[in-house]
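Lecture notes, unit on binding sites. The following record was shown on slide 14. It pairs a sequence with zinc ion.
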Amino acid sequence: MTIDLPHFRYHPDPVASGSVHGSTETCACCKRSTGWIYTATFYTAQNVSGRFCPWCIADGSAAERFEGEFNDAYALAGLSEETLVQVTRHTPGFHAWQDPHWLVHCNDAAAFIGEVGYTELAAHPEALDQLRFDLRMGGWHDASRLESFLNHLGQGASAMLFRCTVCGAHLAYADAS
Ligand SMILES: [Zn+2]
Ligand SMILES: [Zn+2]
């Protein structure tokens, strides 16, 4: 099945990642039923009744009309204003236990791939190594407990996998309930 969704540089397959679902629901912004509806985060002070189609995310109309953001900008400090706007106002967010955040590589926001377990993460050794390093820096000093945690990703805790939009390297952070 080919899906003709708008192109999201920082979230290339929001259907695969579970942020966009096939649905007959009407978009809260354009009032059209496009066949697709966005189900993940949107931060706004306004009362929005309903959810958005991917097109109103891509062109920024949903973020503009409801004065909201799909993604938090705090992890994107230091990037260009253009990238910041692209990620916060034109890019679908994703479901996570903790506050989702965007990873950065090569001075650009990375592309969100999806929530993965150990096997999928281990398919990208550079991402596994980087996550192990980050967790160690974050205070996981017991190596065997850390390896056990990594080995059990996908059960309770999981990894949020990204791919650098510049060099293609994979990177991840751990998310837990
Ligand atoms: Zn719409
Ligand atoms: Zn890179």
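Take-home: The chain has a mean pLDDT of 94.
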